[in-house]
Write a structure and sequence with these properties.
157 residues, alpha+beta, elongated, single chain
Amino acid sequence: MIRVLVIVVALMVAVMLGLGGLIHFNIIPDITGGLIKPMEGKVENAPPPGPPPRVDPIFLNMAPFSIPVIQNKEVTGNIYFALRLEMYPTADGRVAKALPQLHDLYLRALFQMVPDMMTERTTPDYRAIKARLKVITERVVGTGQVKDVIVMSAFTR
């Protein structure tokens, strides 16, 4: 008899805890008259929050560069670069205004870097080139204007 009573009480407790959980998580309406507090913040017909709005990247193309590779006082080849600047969405028109100056400074830096690289390697170190050009860009137009300097294409001839 005691076993039956323990089983009945255990079943009643399990059913009551199950109903309490269903009410707490707003699966069934509250039938207890406010004894169990439902979970806050759940709105039935609210649309789910979407992803943040997409911001399209802004690019600024530059005229291509032709850099001669000079080794032992003779031209052994040429390297052609096509560059593109990726702008921040908050960038103003300073970069477009400074484009001729950037082109000149990039050309000077490439004339200095590329022949030195080609004495040790067969191809230029594009990571080092991008890093150097990014530093030059930030010195000319300031930080927060250009996100990245992209090498669109480069080939040796």
